């Protein structure tokens, strides 16, 4: 049996080279902008447990007459400020996810047509991007709900003060977290890599595209199982190489900005305002430069991974092939 995921490894390299070279700064810059949103990933912070209480070693009782026995709860104004802060953060996060969802279609269209035009592809595909956005929000909420609900059930006795944390139950919950995370990752990854191209190829809504793709997925599940394994390995290797290149580039970029920062340190003795302003400018420009370098490094990596998925998808079902001409050219 021919394994399409194995054959596509080298073909994706050829497709990436033909698309990105010779180097075109405008094309790379537009792709870097797209990947700023497409590659933007967030995560839930780890749950932290901790606590402590007052303790003393002396026999004397400290004088606490001037300390209020209880801290007054926050009033309406404070709660409004807190709610506004969290609401703003949530709105910005959702807006970023929405833009990233539409940019998925911009990215695929760029590879399909071999021309990067953000505005045009956005206007053509933003409605499908909105459906992908909704799907991602629901999938993320379900994932967090299952994990959070399981953890809350285990820790409920601690919250109500009836018992301590059960280490055994926490260990039993680990497989649940792993299974839920793997399933969520596969569903999200297959939606991005395969269902989005199906939506473009047949101009379908997301759930309709999933139903259309499902028969191909189940009919050739071995092909997609091999893809899932190889894709994980390729992403791991690509991530390591990208990190190395980005770090080396960051070191090179740090030299000139470090000199500017040292100049700011020297100015502190003359004018603290000017010195700190120069130091802050150097740090800000360094951070921006590292982000830009990281995005440019990600351009060939993400282009390769997306071409790899498109080649596998087209091999398993010709009707979903978005790059037939490029496929034929690299396989002649």
UniProtKB/TrEMBL annotation:
This is Glycerophosphoryl diester phosphodiesterase membrane domain-containing protein. It comes from Halobellus rarus. The chain crosses the membrane at residues 79-108, 129-156, 168-200, 221-241, 247-268, 275-299. Signal peptide: none annotated. Residues 48-69 are annotated as: Disordered. Pfam families: DUF7544 (PF24400). Keywords: Membrane, Transmembrane, Transmembrane helix. InterPro entries: DUF7544.
């Amino acid at each position: 049996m021919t394994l399409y995921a194995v054959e596509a490894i080298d073909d994706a390299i050829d497709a990436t080279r033909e698309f990105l070279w010779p180097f075109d700064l405008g094309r790379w810059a537009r792709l870097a902008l797209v990947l700023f949103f497409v590659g933007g990933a967030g995560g839930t912070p780890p749950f932290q447990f901790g606590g402590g209480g007052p303790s003393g070693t002396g026999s004397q009782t400290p004088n606490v007459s001037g300390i209020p026995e209880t801290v007054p709860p926050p009033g309406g104004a404070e709660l409004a400020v807190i709610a506004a802060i969290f609401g703003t953060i949530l709105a910005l996060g959702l807006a970023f996810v929405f833009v990233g969802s539409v940019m998925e279609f911009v990215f695929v269209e760029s590879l399909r047509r071999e021309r990067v035009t953000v505005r045009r592809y956005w206007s053509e595909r933003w409605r499908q991007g909105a459906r992908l956005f909704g799907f991602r929000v629901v999938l993320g909420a379900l994932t967090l709900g299952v994990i959070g609900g399981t953890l809350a059930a285990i820790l409920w006795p601690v919250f109500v003060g009836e018992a301590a944390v059960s280490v055994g139950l926490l260990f039993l919950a680990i497989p649940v977290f792993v299974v839920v995370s793997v399933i969520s990752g596969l569903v999200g990854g297959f939606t991005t890599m395969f269902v989005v191209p199906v939506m473009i190829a047949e101009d379908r809504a997301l759930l309709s595209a999933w139903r259309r793709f499902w028969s191909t997925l189940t009919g050739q599940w071995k092909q997609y199982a091999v893809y899932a394994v190889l894709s994980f390995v390729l992403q791991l290797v690509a991530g390591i190489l990208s990190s190395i290149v980005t770090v080396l580039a960051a070191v090179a970029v740090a030299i000139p900005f470090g000199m500017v920062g040292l100049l700011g340190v020297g100015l502190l003795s003359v004018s603290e305002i000017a010195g700190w302003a120069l130091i802050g400018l150097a740090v800000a420009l360094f951070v921006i430069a590292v982000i830009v370098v990281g995005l440019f490094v990600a351009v060939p990596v993400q282009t390769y991974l997306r071409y790899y998925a498109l080649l596998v998808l087209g091999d398993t079902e010709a009707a979903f092939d978005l790059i037939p001409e490029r496929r034929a050219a690299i396989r002649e």
